[in-house]
Write a structure and sequence with these properties.
Chain lengths: 683, 683
């Protein structure tokens, strides 16, 4: 033993002595080095590529000469000729140890490789998918020892991969015999290993060595949109991301109207279930086609969604979710066959995993945000808001995490806003109002230019300027307040009060003109008083939810804020704070996590251990029900106003130096709301 | 403790001391006494009825007074008024222990009650079904601790029945909420516990206490007929037995012609699969309707069948079973959802269990025979033949069991016989030929009278005399041999050779007239030379299979013979031996096991442990493949003749005293066959 060659693997640093002639892959397996192999060391898959290091390695106490490994062999030659091996690389299953050597395992040869996420300050995804490929050499049938083909496949799995007691669906069994014979009893099996207490499953099987890979779909099933990430289950790479409108919108814009539809129309839930499933199937087919992959190679689907979408996806009548005590039919995570959900576009034996719900109003989407953002691992007290039609709110740190959901309504998504529209090319997504001239400048989706920059008109000629999306309306309202066009109660001043003709009367109140496109047959884009009211309601609901959790946690302030949601990614933190959407924190402490729910879905798709992790995490989250909490109403009413902010925003010093306007209009109750706001300040 | 009252349960003899006031059911549970309860001791189900004994019990060292139990209470009163309690009975959950007492648990109150089988010399069935009812009191939803309804059902199962980690199909979850609310959170759940390494499953759920019971179907899926036993899963009683023709017959009479159909016609296997499944659905609906039970209460199905039927039921192309090496797609037992087999007439979540196959030609039906007849527990060397279109043959004792299948063809079922028909009213099922006058007398199905008895004509007027069924043709051939109408080679003598006009020429050979019904517009029923040849081929195959197993086991003789199969039940052992279907044994050592495969299916339906038992047993059986075994051909040819039998059949002394005839006809090779028979005797 002592004279056997020493092998040191990097980056792991794992080391051991092996007999001369031991393949590198075998040594790696014995040492538990994370070195991939699908073909089990037969020189077919090339997943076990390594880079030997020659020379002196004082750190490892090794000097390695060129004779430390067996010579380049025919298998490597063939692979190199066919596909090309990077210079200096060897196949770990072919190169045999002859002397002391340092072997580097490049990231792409690691099973548990890290998928780097683009978003800052978030953890990368460690690859450990539930479904993996295994190349098998299956025993031939023998009349004198008659066992079924399936039983011989299972034996091969046991002997060649140490995968015991695998199950197989009857639809797999029915295709087994031709596949085995076509591959001359060499096949590649896709093996699914659930994190739940169940047996491994032979999910599919292909003749010979299967090179076309395996894929998964991470799906964020929202009330308004269905977004999907088509992911390579070997590399973790996102092949394509795509989204479509949720066709359930025709049964009701928001969640409660869909629950009502189900309550009022017998079989209404089934209609909505069918609509969502069909849309998912269409989206899947479309993504597979444009990505040029065989949809039957999609073997895993992970879903995140709010509780109503969750029930409707599963074919459960959501009626109970529409009334106290908001009982979920089931709250724990669900692992099942995708085909039982009518998801027929994927592999017929594809598995579906649905993250657990947290409570009747706090769904699997919020669980996914918790999985992605990990508030329970935070040293600081972090507030995470996932803004959509409903806002999911998490507050916590490593000691305790709380969650609630708040009914913000669709205003933040541009719905119920006079010039509102969803985020699409042509929509105003950012806006600044000069505090002196009261003139706006803005940016529309599809162009990086501001409206007062050269070339803006040309750049937006194709899309036009069609409306204001969610992030645009938030900025518009905040900027109007900064520019003195709104008073604290949210009332738009008249032209005489504000000194600009852009404020013009509409009915008993005033509106603010952002852009008049009528000359070029475009729309006139304004912010009306009722737009302001809609945003005030939405932001009050959001703020009240956050405050409720802070009360529960007995916290006066939070250390940092994370804005999540596809929409959250586009909110300007400054304007969110000006508007009072979120509690005051230094601007540097507000970050965007992008589509955190979608990221959570991707994590659960790529890493099976993360599924158990989030299931345990969810069990520990304190659930707060906003609908029955009297303090929620109090916070909601108190949060209606848009007070001035000074500290900690030096950026705003110029504008807030202006006196706070106070406009009087007809008896629309502003004074009252202002009064409540004041009461709250006293409290 | 020492002063606590002593309770002794009979018949188990289990005893213990319990605090005053302990309910009898609680004491039984603590002692592990087999006392049933579905409602968990709530006085609803009345399954825990017991009979207290008062007086002196010297055997148990107890004297029990009338005050030994608490008084008859309101729950018992109500139950007695509503349904009636047998005199002397108490409800075990209501009656509390006050003093020393002896408590008898009547058979119907035992969970693991014995179901007595009618057939002699076979074990009874011990009830231990995979699916049982559990009454549950489920926690109400609570907004402050939001868990799903399913999770609260699971908690109740855990707390009230110690059933942990139960799973539920999504179709169950989707009906959960209305059922819970209808039952005010009191429900009865059907819990399925597989013997495989899987979690218990909530199979169905009903509001309140479910009184309509649970049922199962044991199905013998034969090539020719599909037979089903509708069984009460609580009592084990057979509610109804019924059978229909297997509609696959239109694709081919026997197994090989069905395999050929599949090979020749793309999609042919799917046609046959659909036909069988539809027939099973129809049979199920019909049985449920005539038994007046709700088919959705059928929660378990157990199938036994030969390998080709097995594959076609499962939707697997049987092509590989038609050619060496006769590879099964899967050989082990299968537990799956019945709906995945398209079996839609039963509960939507009903489970299907299919017994393991033994080899490519030896199916789950043979495994079921082994389960029913237990050759592996026999002290004597027992030969079990299950005669159908294929014969399944088991030979063994407690040391070793061997199995093979032999292609007897359908002659034993009356097919390919000129006057043959299946066993139905009007068919001749028994026949005797006077060795002197050569006149036959016979019995037809539907009447107990022989044809020479008074009233026979009246008794058979309704059905007529329509043909000869399997058991009839065997007796006819054997009786013809005994009466000297056949020589050893199987040739029918002419009228001049046999001295009776009943032997008449047909073509180059002779036929024997059994019954001329032409006067009353009925058929002329004869046994032709080609009928004799068909029976000779069938019996040779059967005998050769048995001999092959004996060779393998190095046995010259067997100690006893069991004839199994619906048809086996009707074979006269005497005639079977005369014909040479089975090796010579004393007549007293030949028994009939009736439909042993069907019984095996019933055992597996009623007792989940029996499933594991047969899976293990099958693994230990030595499989012998007749198709590739040269000695099978030798035995087959050698067994063609019908030699005289003297010992051990004194019953035959009279007839065999006649000289053995030897007829000569055209060159049909008789001499040759006779010659081989002689060679075998020398060997």
């Amino acid at each position: 033993m002592g004279n056997d060659p020493l092998i040191v693997f990097t980056p792991s640093g794992k080391r051991g002595r092996f007999q001369i002639g031991t393949p590198i892959l075998a040594a790696a397996r014995q040492l538990g080095v994370d070195l991939d192999s699908v073909c089990g060391g037969r020189g077919i898959c090339s997943k076990c590529q390594v880079t030997p290091g020659y020379g002196e390695f004082p750190k490892h106490g090794i000097t390695s000469g060129p004779g430390a490994l067996s010579e380049w062999n025919a298998v490597e030659e063939r692979y190199d000729a066919k596909r090309g091996l990077k210079a200096g690389r060897r196949l770990g299953c072919q190169a045999k140890i002859l002397g002391d050597v340092v072997i580097d395992v490049p990231p792409e040869s690691q099973v548990h490789k890290q998928v780097v996420r683009k978003e800052a300050a978030v953890r990368n995804i460690k690859m450990d998918p539930a479904t993996r490929l295994c190349f098998l050499e299956v025993g031939h049938p023998d009349m004198h020892e008659p066992t079924g083909d399936l039983e011989r496949v299972r034996r091969a799995l046991h002997e060649q991969w140490n995968i015991c007691d695998a199950t197989a669906d009857i639809t797999l069994v029915s295709k087994l015999q031709p596949v085995l014979r076509k591959g001359n009893f060499q096949v590649t099996a896709a093996i699914h290993r659930s994190h739940k207490n169940t047996r491994p499953q032979i999910l599919d099987i292909w003749p010979g060595f299967h090179e076309a890979g395996l894929f998964g779909l991470a799906i964020d099933l929202g009330s308004t949109t269905i977004a999907a990430h088509l992911t390579d289950l070997e590399t973790g790479g996102v092949i394509a991301s795509s989204g479509i409108m949720n066709p359930q919108i025709r049964f009701g814009e928001d969640l409660m109207s869909r629950v009502s539809y189900s309550m009022m129309n017998p079989g209404g839930d089934s209609e909505m279930t069918a609509a969502a499933r069909e849309a998912i199937n269409n989206l899947t087919e479309e993504m597979a086609r444009t990505s040029e992959i065989d949809a039957s190679l999609i073997v895993e689907m992970v879903f995140v969604c709010n509780p109503v979408m969750h029930h409707l996806l599963l074919g459960i009548d959501p009626t109970e979710l529409g009334q106290a005590p908001f009982a979920l039919a089931t709250s724990e995570s669900i692992a099942m066959d995708a085909r039982e959900l009518g998801l027929s576009a994927v592999n017929p034996r594809a598995r579906a995993y649905i993250l657990p719900c947290i409570a009747g109003h706090v769904g699997a989407d919020c669980a996914a945000v918790a999985l992605s953002e990990e508030p329970g691992k935070s040293d600081e007290l972090v507030l995470i808001v996932d803004v959509g039609t409903n806002a999911e709110i998490l507050l916590g740190d490593k000691f305790r995490v709380l969650a609630c959901s708040s009914p913000t309504g669709p205003a933040f998504e541009g719905a119920q806003i006079s010039s509102g529209q969803r985020a699409a090319p042509g929509a105003i997504e950012a806006i600044r109002i000069d505090p002196v001239t009261k003139t706006p400048r803005f940016r529309v989706i599809g162009s990086p230019l501001w409206s007062d920059e050269d070339g803006f008109e040309e750049a937006t000629a194709a899309t036009g300027i069609t409306g204001i999306c969610g992030s645009g309306i938030i900025e518009a309202v905040a900027e109007m307040r900064i520019a003195g066009l709104l008073d604290e109660s949210g009332l738009i001043g008249s032209s005489s009060q504000t000194g600009t003709e852009r404020c013009f009367p509409e009915g008993r109140t005033s509106s603010y003109l952002v852009h008049d496109g009528t000359r070029s047959a475009g729309p006139k884009i304004t912010v009306t008083q009722s737009d302001i009211r809609a945003i005030q309601l939405a932001k009050s609901a959001l703020y009240a939810g956050a405050r409720l959790l802070m009360d529960e946690r007995k916290a006066d302030k939070v250390d940092r804020v994370v804005l999540a949601g596809a929409f959250g990614a586009h909110i300007s933190p400054l304007h969110a704070i000006v508007l009072g959407m979120i509690p005051d924190v230094p601007l540097s402490k507000v970050t965007s996590a992008g589509n955190a729910a979608g990221t959570g879905a991707r994590i659960a798709l790529c890493n099976v251990a993360a599924r158990r992790e989030i299931e345990q995490t969810v069990g520990k989250i304190t659930k707060v029900e906003t609908a029955i909490e009297p303090r929620f109403q109090e916070h909601f009413v108190a949060a209606n106003a848009i007070p001035h902010k000074t500290d900690p925003f030096p950026e705003l010093a110029k504008s807030i130096a202006l006196p706070s306007p106070k406009f009087n209009a007809g008896g629309d109750g502003n004074g009252d709301i202002g009064g409540r706001r004041r009461r709250r300040r006293r409290a």
